[in-house]
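Lecture 7 notes: from sequence to structure.

We start with a single chain of 92 residues. Read the sequence below before looking at the structure.
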Amino acid sequence: MSNDAVSPEEVRHVAELARVDLADGEVDQFTRQFADILEYFETLDEVPEVDRDADLANVMRPDEARDSLDSDEALRNAAETEDGYFKGPNVS
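Now the structure, written as tokens:
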């Protein structure tokens, strides 16, 4: 893969979207690293396809109804509760 597969402008744009400040040296480093990563993905094109149906088996156990905690017992160790529910911090 050529080194211009990912441009420094694209790296800066992605960093801006992720709200990450990058120095010029870091932009160059990430540009090279992204190009290397894309090259690894291109090697997947060389993997031959498998022309057979996989033998699938359900490995999950069947659901079984069983007793669970009642609300009071479940909330017993909670730091804060409100109206019978766990209370957590506000997320903004």
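The domain at 3-46 is CATH 1.10.20.60 (Histone, subunit A). Keep this in mind for problem set 3.
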